[in-house]
């Protein structure tokens, strides 16, 4: 026999008939159906027998599947949950793709039995996630059609019966580790949304989010931890309250700290001096450093993975300054540093440092100074599976080879994923997390853009141990124990420049798509030196230049003003050089909008969402006012942020 279909059940009289009908209607007939029932008290067993199924003693969740597999006659096993429905030709498509790819184990994609758009999006995301991670961390979004050779099921002792949740993912991971696995692309299985309706999106997202996060870290999560239940009966509230009362009684009788002791501790007045926030932070940091020294971390070289976003040049420039400090001669005996980046950032850092590795990354798509979200997303989705595969081969394998103690990310998301996969602490050092970690001001009509930016940033950089933020504006921090702000990181070449005000305006653009800017600049009786359009030459009053690190410093230091988007690094350097700023943020880029907004708010120049002749003319007529405000800004060095980073490395580095 080719195929044995195994279905664990418990009180499934409502859903099982639909699944069995969908199996019965398949053109492929070389199969048997085994129902492993966990003592249902409804008509589940009778229904199974009426459809000609073999019924065996079950148990939830892995026991039933294993019991079914023990009597299976098929060379291939297909494990299904009872609330599924097979799509037309599912079995034929599944067998054909499984054998054509010479697979050992696989899983099928899912489609909700629902008309709700929300449900469709959620299941599409689950499919995308499974495919994206199939080469890195084989994963199953529930037991929705797991296909496995029977001989391998037996070799690996089937499902782990000790697990009460995530036994399907554990099963896939163990077998796929040394055998061929794939998310099948052709067969699709229909999935009930009953648990989504019963539990609600919030609770279900928490359950599966926590479980998946732990799976990526190699940790299994129990059903009890997630408050996950396998039956679908309504609960008796009186019975539940009685049970909770019993648990509380047991807990009170066996608690190390009695409730009255807790009350005493809570009410006791502490007669000690109140420390200010900075002193308290320092005490905490000193204590953690002392603890790490007791673990002999100071006697080892700390291995650092430093990963840098490849979008634009700002992340690379800032990281270059930080890395110059960390790789100085006096730090050679302290740190081994491995640098990862993409695109222009990779090339920039490769020319400056050793141990620089190229990884894949995302780039924002711009058109006429506007972010094209759909094209950016489509490009990201297309690139993600390949990036994950390639970056796994670089980041993950390098991590297994050298065992990093700490990962530092300048808004590079694959290092954030790596941190969770290998359970190595993450430090975030960037400017963009000022959006997530502080109470920022922003134009009220951009609230939706702010919320969208927050969600994207949080998905890029996931729960680091420390946020080190660099900024030229200083809003209130939400949690000072978690985050801190320092002035912008400025290159020494910028610091050493002599400031003068020539007869031209310096122009820098993040992308070369802002054609409207060029059209307007040509209307002025002013000279403009323009960077960012990737060309050389003179067009009337415009001089175009390609990026050259030495030349761009000279042009910027002698300019009378700066026109730019909202890029953080260039604005920071313009402020340091006391150059008035005319900011035109890329439409749809909230970070640039925020940077420009604070330029305007602090009186360092003007921010306009669209360029036009009158606003630019007004800006050029008020340069003296902005220069005066800029001269009140006190320039600072990079020593504070370097000290903070070194301290955080000491505190959070993992000991093997």
TrEMBL record:
Main location: membrane
Subcellular location: Cell membrane
UniProt cross-references to InterPro entries, sorted A to Z: Glyco_trans_2-like, MJ1255-like, Nucleotide-diphossugar_trans
Keywords: Cell membrane, Glycosyltransferase, Membrane, Transferase
Organism domain of life: Archaea
GO annotations of cellular component type: plasma membrane
Pfam family, one: Glycos_transf_2
Record SUPFAM superfamilies: Nucleotide-diphospho-sugar transferases, UDP-Glycosyltransferase/glycogen phosphorylase
Residue ranges constituting the Glycosyltransferase 2-like domain according to the UniProt record: 4-132
GO terms for MF: glycosyltransferase activity
Protein name from the UniProt record: Glycosyltransferase, family 2
């Amino acid at each position: 026999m080719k195929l044995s279909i195994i279905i664990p059940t418990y009180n499934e009289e409502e859903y099982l008939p639909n699944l069995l009908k969908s199996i019965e209607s398949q053109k492929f007939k070389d199969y048997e159906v085994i129902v492993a029932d966990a003592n249902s008290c409804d008509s589940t067993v009778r229904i199974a027998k009426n459809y000609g199924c073999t019924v065996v003693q079950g148990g939830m969740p892995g026991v039933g599947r294993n019991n079914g597999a023990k009597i299976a006659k098929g060379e291939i096993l297909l494990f299904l949950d009872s609330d599924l429905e097979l799509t037309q030709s599912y079995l034929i498509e599944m067998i054909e793709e499984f054998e054509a790819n010479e697979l050992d184990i696989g899983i099928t994609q899912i489609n909700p039995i629902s008309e709700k758009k929300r449900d469709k999006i959620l299941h599409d995301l689950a499919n995308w996630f499974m495919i994206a991670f199939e080469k890195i961390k084989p994963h199953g979004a529930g037991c929705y059609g797991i296909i496995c050779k029977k001989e391998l099921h037996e070799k690996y002792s089937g499902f782990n019966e000790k697990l009460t949740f995530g036994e399907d993912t554990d099963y896939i991971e163990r077998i796929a580790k040394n055998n061929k696995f794939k998310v099948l692309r052709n067969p699709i299985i229909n999935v009930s949304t009953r648990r989504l309706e019963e539990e609600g999106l919030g609770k279900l997202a928490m359950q599966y989010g926590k479980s998946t996060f732990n799976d990526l870290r190699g940790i299994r999560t129990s059903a009890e931890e997630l408050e996950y239940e396998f039956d679908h009966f309504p609960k008796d509230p009186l019975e539940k309250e009685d049970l909770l009362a019993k648990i509380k009684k047991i807990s009170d009788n066996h608690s190390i700290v009695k409730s009255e002791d807790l009350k005493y501790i809570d009410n006791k007045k502490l007669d000690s001096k109140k420390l200010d926030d900075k002193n308290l932070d320092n005490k905490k940091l000193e204590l953690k450093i002392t603890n790490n020294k007791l673990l002999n971390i100071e006697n080892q070289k700390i291995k650092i993975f430093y990963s840098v976003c490849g979008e634009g040049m700002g992340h690379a420039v800032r990281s270059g300054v930080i890395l110059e400090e960390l790789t100085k001669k006096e730090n050679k005996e302290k740190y081994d540093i491995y640098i990862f980046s993409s695109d222009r950032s990779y090339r920039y850092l490769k020319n400056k440092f050793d141990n620089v590795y190229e990884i894949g990354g995302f780039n924002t798509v711009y058109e006429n100074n506007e972010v094209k979200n759909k094209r950016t997303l489509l490009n990201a989705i297309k690139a993600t599976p390949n990036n994950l595969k390639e970056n796994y081969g670089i980041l993950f394998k390098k991590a297994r080879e050298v065992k990093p103690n700490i990962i530092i990310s300048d808004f590079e998301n694959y290092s954030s994923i790596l941190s969770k996969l290998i359970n190595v602490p993450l430090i975030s050092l960037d400017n963009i997390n000022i959006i997530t970690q502080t109470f920022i001001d922003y134009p009220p009509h951009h609230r939706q853009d702010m919320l969208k930016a927050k969600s994207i940033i949080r998905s890029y950089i996931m729960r680091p141990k420390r946020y080190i933020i660099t900024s030229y504006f200083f809003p209130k921090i939400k949690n000072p124990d978690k985050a801190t702000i320092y002035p912008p990181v400025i290159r020494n070449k910028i610091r050493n420049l002599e400031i003068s005000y020539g007869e031209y305006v310096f122009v820098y653009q993040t992308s070369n798509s802002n054609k409207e800017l060029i059209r307007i600049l040509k209307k002025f009786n002013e000279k403009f030196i323009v960077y960012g359009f990737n060309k050389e030459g003179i067009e009337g009053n415009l001089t175009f230049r390609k990026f050259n690190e030495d030349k761009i410093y000279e042009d910027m230091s002698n300019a009378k003003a700066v026109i730019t988007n909202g890029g953080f690094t260039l604005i920071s350097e313009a402020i340091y050089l006391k150059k008035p700023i005319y900011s035109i943020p890329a439409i749809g880029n909230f970070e640039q909008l925020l940077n420009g907004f604070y330029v305007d708010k602090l009186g360092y120049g003007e921010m306009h969402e669209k360029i036009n002749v009158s606003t630019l003319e007004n800006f050029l007529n008020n340069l003296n006012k902005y220069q005066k405000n800029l001269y009140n800004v006190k320039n600072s060095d990079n020593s504070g942020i370097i000290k903070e980073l070194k301290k955080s490395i000491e505190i959070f580095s993992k000991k093997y």
